[in-house]
Amino acid sequence: MKTVAKNRRAHFKYHVLEVFEAGLVLSGPEIKSVRAGQVNLEDAFGRIDNEEVYLWNAHISIYKQGSLHVVQEPTRRRKILLHKDQIHRIMGKLSTKGLTLVPLEIYLSDSGYAKVRLGLCKGKLGPDKRQDKKKKDVERELRRNFSGRHRIK
């Protein structure tokens, strides 16, 4: 498993309640761009249309060495492959106010397929974000103080 792109802001902006792993339908030049790591998940989100899940606003750059005849839009919607029972479960949970489907990362499986890890998330408020930032700062300080080169003798 090789991680291609991570949505680093997702854990800062949202509480991740549940995680789903799914396949991602890509065209030939798109999978080559994904393998090259030219993916941005910053503004991406998942949406359900007609009992199918789609990934919206995920930016996959145009493959430079690809054909000029086939031009893909970098932010087009892409189908996510999930089982029907998973889709119905997500639909039930998304009906709850304040929940959203956020891509956490895109990775390549051992067999070479592009997979996406989706999180069912609830947005954080300002105090939650400040609390997380303080917690990270404290952990960083503790690691710094207990590392070998910064010990007080």
Characterise the protein shown here.
The protein has 153 residues and is an alpha+beta fold. It is 29% helix and 35% strand. The protein is built from four helices and nine strands, in the order βαβαβββββαββα. The strands form two sheets. A seven-stranded antiparallel β-sheet has the order 1-8-9-2-7-5-4. A two-stranded antiparallel ribbon has the order 3-6.
Strand order of the largest sheet: 1-8-9-2-7-5-4
Overall, the morphology is globular
Strand count, sense and barrel status of the largest sheet are:
7 strands, antiparallel
User: What is the CATH fold-level name?
Assistant: Small Protein B, Chain: A
Instruction: Supply the number of helical segments.
Output: 4
What proportion strand? 35-45%
Q: Mind telling me the CATH class?
A: Mainly Beta
Counting structural domains, the number is 1
Please estimate the helix content. Answer: 25-40%
- Known CATH architecture: Beta Barrel
Spell out the helices and strands N to C: EHEHEEEEEHEEH
Sheet/helix structural class = alpha+beta
Distance between the termini: 43 Å
* CA-atom Rg in angstroms: 19 Å
Q: Based on DSSP secondary structure assignment, what is the total number of beta strands? A: 9
